[in-house]
Amino acid sequence: MSRVWLVLYLATWVLHFVLVSYVLVGSGYALGQSLRGRDDDPLAARIRDLLPFMLGCGITAGVAPLLFLQLLHQERFYTANLLLGPRWGAVVPALIVGFYALYLQKAATTPRWRRLALAAATGCFLFVAWSWTELHLVMRDTPSWVAMYAAGERFYGQSGVLPRLLLWLGVMPVLFAGLAAWWSRGAERQRLAVVAFVGHVIAGVAVAWLSARGSSVDPVARGWLYLLIAAVVIELVGWGLVLRRPDGPGLTIVTGAATAAMLGLAIVRESPRLALVTARPAALEASGVWVFAITAVFAVAAIAWVVKTIRD
Ligand code: HEM
């Protein structure tokens, strides 16, 4: 059963990551264009318009991996810790401020207010990305976690946090560009290809930094690492094609390769934690299939009712 949870965890985490990449990098991109006095850039305008919706999707998609993670790592990963501990609990107000800022930037009537709102949103989402990175590392480091808890400390602050965060800040522009390119054409796609190339350079620097610190890939995941490398090479070729012929087949190649790369990345990322998985028989027995089924039917009916109400 824990294999099913693992697969669901990986799939939902990838979905979550693609959506929050759009939000974080999209906010940064719109802010950059605004600071350059390019508020009239149609690409930035389209991105700004979609940001609140994408954040809603990203947050919703984050709940699923959080719950699967709780099932996989019952002792180590407490959802309650995230919600109740002040350090990681700060993620929730940061997301609320970020959400409002995204609506405010849409309503802003002057570039100054738009910039302020976009800067606030980008800052909040960077904080959230940093928080998840720190939380991921501390959950794998039980002695430090116990010591932190005993001492009432708030920050893990290990030197591994920054290079890991830099890696995500490199992967995110690639995913953002891949998604945003589907709603763009011509020169806009070419600009997004440049964003993706910059993301690859940042990710490359982060990988070199992590390797210099002695991080290596778990032997269990070597095959997935090779898949990841091959997919990234094909994806780069795809972006090259987008640069030459923006409306040609390049974007389809990029999308296929990026999907394979994210699959490989998710498994390589997870491999050091696999040995820590605790599938408890008690949790399986108490699975509550009927409660789940009734709740699922109720949820589908409620969503259908909401959709119908909005349509009418
Ligand atoms: C804009 C908002 C968000 C951003 C930028 C963001 C970013 C990230 C990043 C960078 C990671 C990777 C951490 C690592 O492996 O080092 C991550 C993981 C994760 N995120 Fe998000 N996230 C956001 C919101 C959320 C929300 C609201 C939830 C849950 C409701 C969530 C659930 C998760 C989960 C479960 C993981 C895996 C954690 C782990 O493996 O330890 N995220 N997120």
What does this structure look like?
The structure is a single chain. The protein has 312 residues and is mainly α. The protein has 3 domains: 1-158, no CATH class; 171-279, no CATH class; 281-312. 80% of the residues lie in helices and 0% in strands. It has 13 helices and no strands. The chain has helices at 2-35, 42-72, 79-84, 86-89, 91-107, 111-139, 142-151, 161-180, 186-212, 222-244, 250-270, 281-285, 289-311. The model has no long low-confidence stretch (mean pLDDT 91). The site of protoporphyrin IX containing FE has 24 residues, from helix 1, helix 2, helix 6 and helix 8.
What's a quick, concise take on this entry?
With 312 residues, the protein is mainly α. It has 13 helices and no strands. The protein has 3 domains: 1-158, no CATH class; 171-279, no CATH class; 281-312.
